[in-house]
Specification:
Elements lengths: L2 E2 L2 E2 H11 L2 H7 L19 E2 L6 E3 L7 H14 L2 E5 L5 H16 L2 H5 L10 E4 L15 E7 L14 H25 L6 H5 L4 E9 L9 E6 L5 E6 L5 E5 L2 E4 L7 E5 L1 H6 L9 E4 L6 E9 L8 E2 L14 E2 H7 L22 H12 L22 H5 L13
Parallel strand pairs: 3-12, 4-5
Antiparallel strand pairs: 1-2, 5-13, 6-7, 7-8, 8-15, 9-14, 10-13, 10-15, 11-12, 11-14, 16-17
Helix pairs in contact: 3-6, 4-6
Bound molecules: 2-oxoglutaric acid.
GO molecular function: 2-oxoglutarate-dependent dioxygenase activity; L-ascorbic acid binding; metal ion binding
Keywords: Iron, Metal-binding, Oxidoreductase, Vitamin C
Family: Belongs to the iron/ascorbate-dependent oxidoreductase family.
Length: 409
């Protein structure tokens, strides 16, 4: 397995992993050709446009301008699934500090990062380039990540390395505050009571990914982050001034330009499901570049540990007939998993039951929260003979026109 002429894919991945130095380690060693497992074979679409602009929403005077802001959020979430926020209450110093903390973590000597290096999706605090088993059909992304998972808003601070501990803890305090504001505003934008999403605890856990994209010697052959949509309720991102993030909108790849002081909000696919397609979760990607290092930090919000086992479909409070079937968040996330190991796999053939142990639950949820950078078009292992690649959202639709083998109702 794995030999293509004199090329051994597995060996190359294994050798890379053994260095525990990530993409930055490759660059520091002076590579001029990227390893093949980073090469994206798909046609790089050239239909990028810069004229289109994703909405920028000003949160200034939220109390007096609330209706106007709710309306802007509703429109942006319905048509773009992305918007930038300014005057959102997170101080510039805290945003600068998290980017600096991200940089400090990744730029410390490899020996200091190594103890956190892990492809094990189970670890709550980890440094990685590839998580779990990389699929041959998918290219690795040209970036390193350091991630911390806060289940129900909590993570033991001592688990975070001192080099970026204060920066992460301080940033997360503001992320949770902003989450409360956004949760209220999104509830109102859906026409629900202000406290609806908050009471449901749909955004109560977080995973913070501190991302480092070194310059790439062959940027046209790979991506900083492969295209994907987030299986979250909501993602909030801070990016430096390098650029490279693009979203798929109306068949174009549209740049998300850096705006000093702005944070980016991104509707996740779980929000699309509970909102019955009212709000859209869109694909996005990051281009690799030949010069400059991009740094960003993405905070992924998803339901509380209590909530993730409860079946949940499009909210009954929203009037339209439900497009999606009921699914627990855990099952939903499982639909987004490309591949899971036998021991804690939960598939649509073996739906969740009360007998799922807490250990399994923790394992699967941690596995997900660490696996956000896999492309979102995995085929759920419903029928291993079916080669069709469908998105998780398609699988969960109540009425699917064809492919009876893939129906799960
Ligand atoms: O902007 C970035 O650096 C990547 C973030 C990302 O892919 C995400 O928010 O899911």
């Amino acid at each position: 397995m794995g030999n293509d002429g004199d090329y051994d894919w597995e060996k190359e991945v294994e050798e890379f992993e053994k260095t525990k130095a990530g993409v930055k380690g490759l660059v520091d060693s002076g590579v001029v050709k990227i390893p093949r497992f980073f090469i994206d074979q798909s046609e790089k679409s050239s239909n990028s446009v810069t004229q289109l602009q994703i909405p920028v929403i000003d949160f200034q005077e939220l109390t007096t301008r609330r209706m106007e802001i709710v309306d802007e959020i509703r429109k942006a979430s319905e048509s773009w699934g992305f918007f930038q926020m300014v005057n959102h209450g997170v101080p510039m110093s805290v945003m600068d500090a998290i980017l600096e903390g991200t940089r400090k973590f990744h730029e410390q000597p490899t020996e200091s990062k190594m103890e956190y290096y892990s492809t094990d999706v189970m670890r709550t605090v980890k440094f990685y380039t590839i998580l779990g088993n990389l699929q041959k059909s998918h290219a690795a992304s040209w970036r390193d990540a350091f991630s911390c998972t806060f289940t129900d808003d909590m993570l033991n601070p001592a688990a975070i390395p001192p080099v970026c501990r204060n920066e992460i803890n301080e940033y997360m305090k503001f992320m949770m505050k902003l989450r409360d504001t956004l949760s209220d505003l999104l509830s109102e934008a859906l026409g629900l009571n202000r406290d609806f999403l908050g009471k449901m605890q749909f955004l109560k856990s977080e995973s913070l990914s501190c991302l480092y994209y070194p310059a790439c010697p062959e940027p046209e052959r790979t991506f900083g982050t492969e295209k994907h949509a987030d299986p979250t309720s909501l993602t909030v991102l801070v990016q430096d001034d390098t650029g490279g993030l693009q979203i798929h909108h109306d068949n174009y790849w549209v740049d998300v330009p850096p705006i000093k002081g702005a944070l980016i909000a991104n509707i996740g696919s779980f929000m699309q499901l509970i909102s019955n397609d009212k709000f859209k979760s869109v694909e996005h990607r990051v281009l690799a570049r030949s010069i400059g290092t991009r740094v960003s930090s993405a905070c992924f919000f998803y339901p509380s540990s209590d909530q993730i086992l409860k079946p949940c479909g499009p909210l009954k409070e929203l009037e339209n007939p439900p497009i999606y079937r009921e699914v627990s968040y855990l099952e939903f996330v499982t639909c987004h998993q490309k591949k899971m190991s036998e021991e804690d796999s939960v598939t649509a053939e073996a739906p969740l039951s009360d007998s799922l142990s807490v250990r399994q639950l923790g394992a699967v949820s941690r596995r997900w929260s660490s696996s956000l950078y896999r492309p979102l078009s995995p085929s759920l292992p419903i029928d291993s003979h079916d080669e069709e690649v469908v998105t998780a959202m398609e699988l969960l639709r109540r009425k699917r026109p064809s492919s009876p083998a893939l129906q799960i109702e």
